[in-house]
Amino acid sequence: ETGTWGKIKAGTAAHPIHSAKNLTEHLTMQTPNDPKRAQIENRRLLKWLTMIEDWEYFCTNHPQNIKSQIYLGVPDCIRGTVWQMMADSIVLRETNRGVYQELLRRPSTSLDAMILRDIPRTFPKHICFREQHGTGQRSLFNVLKAYSEYHQVVGYCQGMGFVCALLLISIDEESTFWLIHRMITQYELEGVYKDGLPDLPRHFYVLERLLQIHLPALLEHFKQENVDTTMYASQWFVTLFSCNFPFKTVLRIWDIFFAEGIVVIFRIGLAVLSRAEADLMKLSLGDILLHIKMVSKSLHDDDALIRDSLTFDLTTPKIRQIAKEFTDNPALRAAAQPGDFAFTKPSWLSS
């Protein structure tokens, strides 16, 4: 169950960043012209290192301390490690030694060609992935190929490439493999990625119901202009905002995602639409979609966006309650279709 802070199991190997010998190296002032700011950041990092050293204790006895630090943002230098600890994927790697390497040795399949076709379209301007057949592209292919073999019910979905790539920026190949497995199996992404995208219609229904509750005038305007939820929200769920949102903002959203699960996608979605509501109410179909993309690109103040998202009183039980309305209604299920959507390169790589 997500939202329990992914207690790390006894005996799980510690990440080398945790050792005292490496502490000084990571207490680097990232804002040398602002000593006060650097001091604050270093104190935050020390808090995180203390929590990481005794993760199970803090998860059990001080979960609110962890939650408050997550909402302030995980320091970049330990973000990948913290994500793995919240998802409890480190123990998977430790108890499945050699599995990833064996998967890579398997013969090619029909999915390999699809993966290879999509690799150059995944963050093509990012330094890690812009070199054709470079290390980043090879690692991305390896993870996606191995996972298509390991979890054949899911296989491969185009949006998985963006999620894998973002993980690879922070952690190594094998760790990315096990972390994305946790994301798919424990964070309600399996039905987003497997053939037919069966969970997307339910997510769209929940989002529309939330709009009906929190932004009813905007929902009515969308209906008048024939703006369907699939037209703007598909990428939100499939790529977890990695398309069209600023990179730093995506990382902050993912910090919360690993702690609380898919509820954060709904909260952030409502925050984005709420911010843009006044302008969207004046626009027609094509301009509405363009404006939502434009607003998404401009979300550089991640602190403000997260504050805005918390004004919506959403919890996982509330989301599940609304989702049950959809699940229990055959007519709604029969009428709903995932809809067509195309993946575009993230806006934060366009400059």
In words, what does this structure look like?
The protein is mostly helical and 351 residues long. 64% of the residues lie in helices and 0% in strands. The chain contains 21 helices and no strands. It has helices spanning 20-26, 35-53, 55-61, 63-72, 79-87, 90-95, 99-104, 110-118, 135-150, 160-170, 173-186, 190-193, 200-214, 216-224, 230-239, 247-260, 263-280, 285-297, 302-309, 316-327, 330-335. Helix 4 (63-72) packs antiparallel against helix 16 and helix 17 packs across helix 19. The longest helix is centred in the first third of the chain and has 19 residues, at 35-53. It is globular. The two termini are 39 Å apart. Mean pLDDT is 88; it is low at 1-30 and 338-351.
Structure characteristics:
single chain; 351 residues; mainly alpha; 0% strand; globular; disordered N terminus; disordered C terminus
